[in-house]
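Interim report to the steering committee. The following record documents the input for Malonyl-CoA decarboxylase (456 residues).
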Amino acid sequence: MTRTVETPRPSRPAFLGELFEVLTNRGRRLLGRRGAGAATESPDLCELGEALLSRRGEASGVAIAQDLLAAFEDADEATRLAFLHDLAERFGPDPAVVRAALEAVQRDPEDTLAIEALHEATEPRRQELLRRLNLAPGGTAALVRMREELLAHLKGNPALRRVDLDFAHLFASWFNRGFLVLRHIDWNTPASILEKIIRYEAVHAIQNWDDLRNRLQPTDRRCYGFFHPQLVDEPLIFVEVALTEEIPDNVAGLLDLDRQPIEAERASTAVFYSISNTQRGLAGVSFGNFLIKQVVEELKAELPNIRSFVTLSPVPGLAAWLARQRQDEMSELIGADQRLAFALLDDPDWHRDRTAAESLRAPLLAAAAAYFLRARDGKGRVVDPVARFHLGNGARLERLNFLGDVSANGLKQSHGLMVNYLYDLDRIEANHEAFAEGSAIAASDSVTRAQPISNA
């Protein structure tokens, strides 16, 4: 299928872009450097970092920042990893400065200026380096890619953890919700963005352009993206919405290419069936709560006939969690009868056998209720990451849907279970506060009743 590719909007007004280029070129002349790509040998990334921190002029600083980011992206993997290690080892706090600041506080513990000086002294030099790199044209996007590279090496390089903490600290400020802009995405959106929707879809893969059209063009479908001013044509999060006449309990009907669309005015329910984060380099960075509430309010303004706002969400960790509970004979989260019933799950085609599937319905729903309401991770949090997102946004755990997703991925990650979270406009703030302050989970009676049988 052929689409007309529209020219993406610039990330800043043209005259500002030209001004940045002038400043950069002047900075290079001041430094005696030629334009990007003119060097005959690869620059030393660590030396460029030290040079950037030593400069006071903005023109020369922007030029060095641009050179460093370009050199990092052009370098091979080993060179990039070495630079990340340099950030950890050579761009931490200056020990001599920290020692002097600490001695000043020890001499007068009530001196607030000395305390503030100590706080400033303990900040790693790499944080200021990252701030200066962010001043380069395209610097924000380049730093997001740099952190993506760092995350790929984190498991085998624990020393990089402190660098990651600095990235996360800065990104939490640069990408807070106040900077995000909500935009409606439809079939007329530039192809450069639509291609990214296909690429980044993380919940229900988009097979082709026809599949994408089925999610954007019909009257009973909506899609919204959250964008950042420095990443204008890169959606950070996008939300796919189906308008329906009832709360759905399975995803196949929503994605069916042959379904019959309804008029938006007939719908009573808005279903958020896919919410995808697109930037791996922003993993773990919270964009703030109430993002979904913003979409809810947008829909409510357009379609006042919508009364229910729900999700149809995956449960990505349920199958792995249940496998661990089955292996742990002392587990208090599943009962003895459940444990026996779950032997049927070892048959990959259990869901095709009507008798086997029906015998698993109650045990699996009980295990899912325990998974959401009682299971906790090592940090004391709700185990499921999707649940943490929606509960943190003020939703209520509304319904557990047996065999809601019988795709290969749905069966693998959750034995086919899906969940509806309900966004009640009158309760969102209260639910959010209860979850944030005391980890209290808002859940419907149907979920709380589906408790596991005691092991006794």
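The radius of gyration is 26 Å. The committee is asked to note this result when reviewing the revised timeline.
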